[in-house]
Structure formats: structure tokens, C-alpha cells
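Reviewers of the previous submission asked for a worked example of the structure-prediction workflow described in the proposal, so we include one complete record here. The input consisted solely of the amino acid sequence. No template or homolog information was supplied to the procedure at any stage.
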Amino acid sequence: MPTIVSPRVAALCAAALNLTAVEAAAAPTLLAQVPLPGAPFDGIAITPDGAKLYVSLVKAKNPGVNTIAVIDTATNAVVDVIDLGNQGADNSSPRQLYMAPDGKILVHATYVDNLVFIDTAVDMVIDTVPGVGSAVAVFTGDSSRLWSRDSNSKTARVFDLSDLSVLATFPLLSPPLLSPPTTAASTRSPPTTAATASASRRR
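From that input alone, the workflow returned the following C-alpha cells.
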């Protein structure tokens, strides 16, 4: 049975992938199966020009050793492997990959919640920023800054991508816990029936 894609979903896919609505609505076709030097996990990212695809891999466990495979999309072959080393935790697994809009910086959020910065021109790690909690990375549209959320310390950090310095740190305040609203119905006494009135007179 063919896959049915709504026009709205097709339009959203087209906007995200620079495809026409017809191309986005078309059934996917398997082009190739690429052998990977490790077990693929959560992270996958592609350069804006579509030339290189990055896939986060689990290379070993106990302790966790992770890598990123670099795939040439023209040949559908692994052309490089970026070694991330020991992640510092048993059974650790890689998390998400985040590509800058200009394609120059790739950020890998690790299991131990470090942010690993990778220069995609040479596919090498250029810096690692320690963190705790679930790190999430969001780039500004001009690729000049990176916002990273740290759910454990409840902060957001802003990085200058020209030198990876921290420009600012903001607290992420949780909203106060609110009690359920009290309604007029809940504050009124229960209605007195004839049966309850008679019982009160007997007492």
C-alpha cells in the first residue's frame, strides 16, 4: 500500500529539505546501505550542501568509547571516522549531533553531557566544553552563536563560535507550583436534605 502524505506535511518537508512538494510527498526510496564502523545511535547531521553526512556511533562499552562516521554522500562511503575517545562513563552512548547553519561547526552532545565542537573542514575535534545535565544546542541563523541548555544546573549558556568563549549564562527558572483553583462550588456546604435534617433533630 503506498504511503499517503498530507499536502501540509509535504509542504513542511519541502521547506525543511529544499524539496518541491511533489518530491516531499513521494514515497522514500532506498538508495544505498552503508556499512558503519560501529553501532549507530541517536545522532545524525548533514552539511548544508549535502556533501557529507555525520552519524554518531558506539564503538565500545565499559567504558563507553564513541566515534562519528563521516560519509561522502556522492559515493555513499565512509571517508573518515572522528574519534571522541573515552566518554568517562560505563555503557555511555552518544547523543545528538547539531550542525551549524553555515556547515562549519558540528556539535556533539555526549552521554556525560559535554559539548564536543568539531571543525567540519578537517573533521577534527577542536574543543570540548564540560557540562552536566541534558545538554541541548541551538545555533543562531548566522552561525555566530550557540545556545546550550543545561537541565541539571537549570541554566542556558551562550557561546561565541569565533573562539568558543562563553558570552553569557542565564538561569532557567521553573514556574512555581500552583494549587488547584478553589471554586465557589467547593467552598459551599453540602445541601441539607430532609433525611439529614431529621437525623439532626433526633441527635
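The radius of gyration is 27 Å. We consider this example representative of the routine output the project will generate in years two and three.
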